[in-house]
Amino acid sequence: MLFNSFQFLVFFPLVTLIYFLLPHKLRWFHLLVASCVFYMAFVPIYIIILFATIVIDYYAGILIENAPDSRRRLYLSMSIFANVGVLFFFKYYNFFADNFNQLFAWSKVNADIPLLKIILPIGLSFHTFQAMSYTIEVYRRKQKAEKHFGIYALYVMFYPQLVAGPIERPQNMLHQFHEKHIHDNKNVIAGLRLIIWGLFKKTVIADRLALLTDKVFADPRAFSSEVLITAAIFFSFQIFCDFSGYSNIALGTARVMGFDLMVNFNWPFSAKSISEFWRKWHISLSTWFNDYLFTPIAQSTRDLGIYAVVIASLATFMVSGLWHGAAWTYVAMGALHGVAVAYEVLTKKTRKKIFKKIPKSIGDAIGLICTFSYVTFAFIFFRARTMSDAFYIVGKIPTVFTEMINRGKPGGLPVAWPIGTNMLRMCVLSICLLQFIYLIQKKRTLTSLFDSQSRPIRWVIYYGFVLTILYLGVFQNRQFIYFQF
Amino acid sequence: MKNIYVKMFIFCLIPLPLLFALDYLVDHGLRKSRYTYYSEWNDIFDSKINADLLVLGTSRAWILFSPKAMDSAFHVNSYNLAMDGADFDFGYKRLKIYLAHNKKPKTIIVEVGFVKTLVGSDVLPGVQQFLPYMRDSSMWNFANSKNLSFSFFDRHFPLYKYNNELSLIKEGVMSYYGKGSRGTKYKGYEPKVLEWDNAFSEFQRQNPNGWKPETSKAAIDEFYDFFGFCQSNNIKVIMVYTPVYIEATKMLVPEAKEKLMSVFYDVSKKFNAPFYNYEQDSLCYNRDLFYNSQHLNKKGADLFNPKFVNDVKKEFQ
User: Fold this and answer.
1) What was the ipTM of the complex prediction?
2) At a CB cut-off of 8 Å and minimum separation 6, what does A107 contact?
3) Which of A170, A237, A398, B290 is the most buried (most CB within 10 A)?
4) Which of A182, A204, A238 is the last residue of a domain?
5) How many domains does chain A divide into?
């Protein structure tokens, strides 16, 4: 069930209404059933896999908590093995099998690992990571094991964040399921605002930009370098609006019922370095990797000094790339970010010295442009179907000036855009609007700015957003990009 | 708790009258408009056509058969009812809607070819043409006849069907106040003043081993059904294979071409429908008369029409 679908338009108010009508002791059950229905709307059979991992991690949590120190690690390892095993089987088996088969063929070894015909369970990487964070936190004694099976199941399955996060921590979520949430108008208003803002970003901006990016990335060789560069830039905004839009809707639906989920995005394109970008982009995943991968690696290699951070960054970003998808394009994207962060770590002092000599505003602008350009460059690998496509696009970028000069010559052909001029204008306008909203909320949060307005003005703004979604939104039941992960 | 839901209800209610009013304005405006395909639909629904001779087919017919030439040559009232991008069955369905509002024609000219006639695709051509008629059940069934192109919301929620169609909304409002587009067609006919584009060379590159047009059994059955329908209604049908650029004809895989042609000849024989085949006409050899491999440009149409009316004249004597 997609957040931008008619089914969800019925599902969400119904679930919320029943939630508030039920007594507190039955609410967990209601939410669990609703979450099952939500999940089963995709591929029903995969609920069994989810249920199996929930059972394993639930008992692992209790066993870890009660076990003597000598056995705690064993139970944690078993839980992680089960989670990673499921993830590996469904997401990475074919990738590794295919690569090994190519390696065998190349080295003329007569072996063939069979490929499996399986569909990746939706949101597998998200709920697996969320489940793993529970057992790790119990192991670290930062969280008590949850004794209520239903509540633990709900922690993994809570429908607003089940398929694409935010990847929550048990410390933030579990207690919320035990608490009684009373209907609060403030929560309802704040939640609905988030939903509208999320839908706006998804349907008005992301899915509009997708009209161009989908065509270009499907067949990049059919387009000129101007179109390829535009598609790369559009894709950066598309994926931001798509994923942050999803997160807003997730946060909003949870907020209406009184739940607080962690904020996943904080205007990442305002970052002035790649390190800062990752503190603003997919925050729940970045912090997950920071806590459970980067920090342990950095600590275990701390004898290497600053190179410990470099090694940890490279390793973390490579794994992060692979987390996104089982393809070399994702690994390349992760590696590019890892290299950038490593570079920033190694040159921190030098860069600081240089930037001290130039005015702050110029330094910030340079940082902003360089970061956005690099992120966009890395996203080419993320979006390209194959490495060959990605390299083709990257190779075409430098030819843009030659192509533009040739167009200006007599007989030069105009740029062949895959969408109409009006639609292209709307795409640019939607990006400008996004940036305008960013500038507005720079000094004051949108919520406080909103609350300070009189009701008629607030309503006019609400109407503006709702009517724009209805009449200028692109509704093609397009999935959220991160659902595939 | 109640207060907020009352406010939300009021919030939703307030714009509805305005949206319904605008929806009415745009629908009724477009139903007066002469803008692109609305001119034919409006003529149909306003019972303004009542032609003796109708032309059915795809864009190949729409840009080719001049009612002016036919009117003066055959002394009839003709109208070009061809649909851009439409499979044959859409033309047939349109004919049925036409007959519900207009008198029965004596003769129908059916343009046939390889691209659309016997291909059953699920694509609805020119979705926008159906929008102002969403609440008309015949049009609703027509638009949703193959796959569900429109939703409940499109039909009933004010203006929702005009999502991302700002230019149509503008045209609707302008037309409502009599300031809409004047239209560029004459009785449905619109020749194209265009020069040869290079799309065909890309097509050739993509199909180095020739091109095999697909056919569907459902489309063939529909084609036969149409001829049966016309026969039972005493409507004479004339089939015309309109000129195609010769290099495109050469690209057709012989077996596929033979299969399609055999259907056309069989129908012609079975239903006693004259078949005029311009596949090898001299016009097909002159690329300057086409704007792409399937469509003659205005220069081509101007040469074709006198030739055609002269050839077909005997059918009207």
Assistant:
1) 0.72
2) none
3) B290
4) A182
5) 2
